[in-house]
Design a protein that fits this description.
The complex is a heterodimer. Chain A is α+β, with helices and mostly antiparallel strands. Chain A has 5 helices and 3 strands; from the N terminus they run ααβααββα. The longest helix of chain B has 29 residues. The chains are: A alpha+beta, B mainly alpha.
Chain lengths: 110, 194
Amino acid sequence: MPQAPAAGDAAQPVPDIDRLVHEPARLMVMANLYVVDSADFMYLMRRTELTFGNLSSHLSKLEAAGYVAIDKRFAGKRPRTMVRLTDRGRAALDAYRQSMERVLDSLPVR
Amino acid sequence: MTGTLDLERLEKETFRTYQSEDGMWDVFMGLLMVFWAMGLLVDGTLVSLLMLVPPAVFIAGKALVTVPRLGRGRFNDRRLQRKRTLIAAVVLSVLVTCLLVVAVAQGREGLERMGSAVFIAMTLVLFTMMAYVLQYWRLALWGMLLCGGWAVAVYGDRTVGVAAFLLAGAIVVSVGLVLLRTFLKKYPVIHVEE
């Protein structure tokens, strides 16, 4: 029978987590964009293992929030879409990391 | 508990995947060694033309095989700074090489043998730098093989040196082709309609 936690062992209240970043697929997209200047769809699909449709959907949400910028150009006659994390997106990911580290560090060690 | 998202590790792994997982650097180095060995046996325009094959294969491979499968990622300033340092080192090496060639051509005594030693040392330094910039340490090993074979061919038994060079080159190309085969299986082409 699991024991009830002792007094003082309770985890700290979860602060406001940015749910836009917290979603696992979007977190992977943002993390992979964080470590590069920009990347195309193929790069992100390979790194995140998302389908094209799924990736597009997540990028639309991130773009609406101002976390990513999508730049559509042409290389000759072929379209080339490059995605990059905006300064706001980088700040959001940094804030998310700090929040999660605070939550996880506050967990009691068993 | 920290490191919920190890971005530095992610960046290193991504960079390494893009630089070396396709085996292109190994194929390039192996072909370079094979044609270099042939150049030590046979002088002439043909060999000079053959030396264009390794970089051509590398550039074409990256453009036609790697990028369509992995996509394009532009890495950040820290990587670009290392790349610029490498390019500066290559330019400096080429300048030193040109000066030495001019000096040797003018018949300065003793410079011919010294010149080979300098070329070999510079090549080794260059490949070690490339290995550092590209985070691909096997490149330093291939550089040592190339310089070792070259040194044996120039200062020791020419036939043994050339044979060792050819054999080493063949092994390195084989390693590259195995990596390429694995890469092609792991990353089939996906058609993305943008």
